[in-house]
Description:
With 98 residues, this protein is mainly α. The chain has one domain. The protein has helices at 5-18, 22-38, 43-63, 70-85, 89-95. The radius of gyration is 13 Å and the shape is globular.
Amino acid sequence: MKTDVAQEAAAMEPEITKAEDYLSCEKVLINNIKKHLLEGMDDAALQAYAAAMAEHYDTKTRALQHNRVCVNYRYASAFLHALRAAPHLANWIRTTNL
């Protein structure tokens, strides 16, 4: 299942840019990932999704370094990179209550 990164990012953009802290950014990303898991995304696709979204937010961070929402893109990117390193990612996402 190939995910359209631009469409995903556009859908989350209002919530990511309005997030007031790191945890708020995490909640947006986790809720979006949970939606994909409910739709049947497997572990391999989840890893690919996290990698693609992390790269998207890395690019946004580099492009908007002096913009006030840049910090939220950094939060999102850091969280997605951390998720990629987590063992049993899909199970953790399913069971977290954020």
